[in-house]
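Quick one: co-fold with zinc ion.
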Amino acid sequence: MNDCLFCKIIAGEIPGNKVYEDDRVYAFRDINPQAPVHVLIVPKKHMDNILECDAETAAALTDAIRAIARQEGVAESGFRVISNCGHDGAQSVKHLHIHLLGGKALPERMA
Ligand code: 5GP
Ligand code: ZN
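Sure, here it is.
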């Protein structure tokens, strides 16, 4: 049995606030938003984090980032994409996800 939270959201078993979907990618609003626009972009196929991401999935995620940034109205104003990986990266959900954050000027760069 798959106990992954994001797999359950993708499958519709847990309510998510969907903003985008295509063949490979699903995206929904973060339950605890850190910015006016805070979307989580995930591959439909389970993979733990970016270390397991194949080239086709990476391309699909990139296409989705562009589409969602336009859809959410932040493509011109700017936004940030972050993918936390592993223990020291403070990854709390072990299904690859990309945070898209925008809608206001964000705090200074982390790196
Ligand atoms: P991480 O810390 O792994 O990079 O990010 C996990 C994100 O998932 C957090 O920003 C958290 O707010 C979000 N999250 C955790 N549980 C849920 C949930 O049940 N629904 C939604 N939409 N987001 C969640
Ligand atoms: Zn999963």
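If it helps, The first helix runs from residue 5 to 10.
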